[in-house]
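U., I forgot to send this yesterday:
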Amino acid sequence: MSTENIKPERITKPIQLLAAWLLGLILINASFLTAASQIHQPGWASGMLLIATVANVPIFLISLFLLQTKFRPEMQEDTFYSKYLERKYNSTPTEVEIKKLQIDEEKEVKTTAQLITKQIAVNNNQGEIENILKERDKLRIQRRIGDSRALSELFLKPDEWKSLVDRWNDSSEFKRDIEELFFYKVIDGDLSNPLSLRLTDLGKEIAETQSRAGLLWNQTRPDRKL
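Result:
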């Protein structure tokens, strides 16, 4: 059977790929049916080709459906896909923005403490209320980042941190992970140089608590490897 009509070098747009898939389905099924009609011995061989022909149809259709839904951004033409990537990855906050969020959160804690002090009319007790609120925030942070991979690796495997960074540094998931830890002051260092990142006292405290409960990333995924 001739395949001269299919020229891969001319398939330059995603929609052409879908058309090539459909054409491929037709050609493959046609070849299976032709072979099945010509095979007489063994008898099961033609039956298997007929079953494969029928099975190919839903497999191809499901694959096409996934391409048009779950992987629709990847199926856009180059110009549109590049804009999609730009929107996706440029939404990551910068280090300056993260520090601003930290300052805003600290101001919120102080403001809340002042309001509580005024409400209960207690003098010279703002520091204690701030400590209470910070303890509450620590629990909130623990719930938020307790399953962080970076937190777990820095606490359990600090000697292997460089190896992890070398393998994971280009991952957007890794960048979001360390940015979140940095925002909550669980790690400090230079975000642009992940090798400089270290756990803060708060980070060690949260990691120790999670470790005792067996909730660190490495503890809940013992079969996962770097």
